[in-house]
Amino acid sequence: MLWRDPHNIFWTLLLPLVLTVMFLLYNPTRVTNISVGISAASSKRQLVSRLEHRLRQEGVGEIRIVNRRVGLSDLAKGNIDLLVLIQNSANNLRSLSLVEPRPVTANTRLAQAAIEAAIDVNVPKIEKFYVVSRVTNYADFLIPGMIGVAIMDAGLFTVLYSFVHLKRLGVLRRLAATPMKPSSFLFGQAFARVFLAVVQACLLIAVGLLFFGLHLVGNIGLVLLLTALGATLFILFGYGVSGFIGNVETAAPIANGIGLPMIFLSGVFFSRSVMPGWLQFLTGLLPLTYVTEGIRSVVAYGAGLSSVLPDILGMVVWSCIFSIASVRFFRRDLA
Amino acid sequence: MTQENNFAVKARGLVKRYGELVAVDHVSLEIPYATIFGILGPNGAGKTSLIEMLEGMRPIDEGEAEVAGVDVRKQPADVRNRIGVLLQQGSFFDRLSLRELVELFGSFYGRAVDADQLLRDFGLYEKKNKIYRSLSGGLQQRFALALAFVNDPSVLFLDEPTQGLDPVGRRQVWDIIKQQKNKGTCVVITTHYMEEAQQLCDTVAIMDTGRILLQGNPLALVTNLKQSGYVNPNLEDVYISVTGKSFSEV
Q: CB-CB: which of B59, B94, B109 is closest to A169?
């Protein structure tokens, strides 16, 4: 009987394949999660690209070309581990200065080693920059990610399972024989799940604060707003997908086949900055990425509403796409 | 306008297709109020597709229908507001109690519902706080029937109402249906039980492969057959004479 269910087979086989490909694309042994900023005048472009090339050979994961002001700000936020300054008078890579944050992290030292290896010389001038460097720990990174996962659970997973269950039982059919509007039903289901997601977010934050040294820098109200928006997005996703599913057995593989790769690709467990550029761009468009990175910037970096507007916009666009899909498939489903 | 001048159900040339298969093939009906109308036929005859089109649950491919004075194609939600329905394969939120379900469904019709009274009428009052999934199959069926009455409808569509019931249960359902007829309700049932069609229905329509082959009062149909020479015919003989096959062959 297993072999007569092509959907099930497809999604079950797909998941390990996707994970394998994803992990190999990350290629963590070759590329590290060191990030370096380079600041130079535009006339020094050639030097900059030479340095960039050498740094990549040394395995530096992320290189940002910035101006000095932005570079210092990135350093302060912890977006880069070290900032390289190429003076206007420089005509080779030997005359660099480095700006490092205080407190110094292991990554800063690794970045310095990579730079020195890239230019073959000990860098003579290191400017120490006393920065209100945000101390972030893994809890600051992980908990927003897990809130994202919780949102996806409450939205996508519960919708898929419950709709398929209701459909199989014949509940949706009986409802279709009443004058009840489908939108009322969908709205009621959504509201309960959004509430669940918000409760889950509060629990995760509480656990983080109490036991794991989570730094809740930003506004918790904004976090919960993003949670509610994200939950709505994934609920719409669930409605859209549930139209495709014929039976209960397919629901689990599909939910996992979509959900689990997305968890890895959206930077829940580790940063997307280790990915190759093209992959970073693509994964940056995923719905879970907008949710996770939006919440992370509020929790760990205190971002305000205006800073997370791009993430909100991304969520809104995905919500619209899923709404259209749901309307097309759900109406057919109810009858 | 009195009810006698209006038909509860009017259908003309209804067609339902599933791909190549024509499940309902140009069916026309006129059913007055205070009648029990039975659609008799084997499984696969198209009974459920027909009745679900009339209930406004399934899109009508061709033809017209009017139920309780409302055009089914144009205002299906309004039709559903006025009718009561028992589905063949329908179920309820299995973790809600009977009382909660009655109140929930009542809310769909925008009118106040006396849940306790409805449950009492169907002998389910003692179970009002039990959740649906904990009920036996027979009681679940009885509850489904009760719920067809939640909006005090003027037209009832009952799809296989005594399916799976024991003889006592069957009698009880028949009594309820007769009571409704006496109140002036139009009751449309589908059935594949000959005895049910014969004993219960004022009019029976024999349906096979999407078409209504013969329609009339069961007694009259049987009497006609007798006059053409059959000895002690029953409704099944009528069916065979019209379709050319016996009921169990299908």
A: B94
Q: CA B42, CA B206: separation in Å to the nearest integer?
A: 9
State the 10-residue block means of pLDDT for chain B, 250 residues long.
Answer: 71 93 94 95 89 92 94 93 91 92 92 90 92 90 93 94 88 93 95 90 94 93 88 87 72
Query: How far is B215 from chain A, CA to nearest CA, in Å?
Result: 27
Are residues A178 and B55, on separate chains, in Cβ contact within 8 Å? no
Same domain, A249 and A214: yes
Residue A135 to residue B154: CA distance in whole angstroms? 71
The CATH number for B3-249, chosen from 3.90.320.10, 3.40.50.11030, 3.40.50.80, 3.40.50.300, is 3.40.50.300
ipTM of model: 0.88
Which of B91, B100, B102 is best to mutate for the A interface (most A CBs within 10 A)? Answer: B91
Q: Please name the member of A170, A171, A177 whose beta carbon is closest to the beta carbon of B57.
A: A177
Q: Which of A171, A173, A335 sits opposite B93 (nearest CB)?
A: A171
Using a cut of 0.95, tell me whether the model's pTM lies above it.
Answer: no
- Domain of residue A90, residue span: 35-129
Domain assignment present for residue A71? The answer is: yes
- CA angle centred on B103, ends B98 and B105, rounded to 5°: 95
Q: How many domains does chain A have?
A: 2
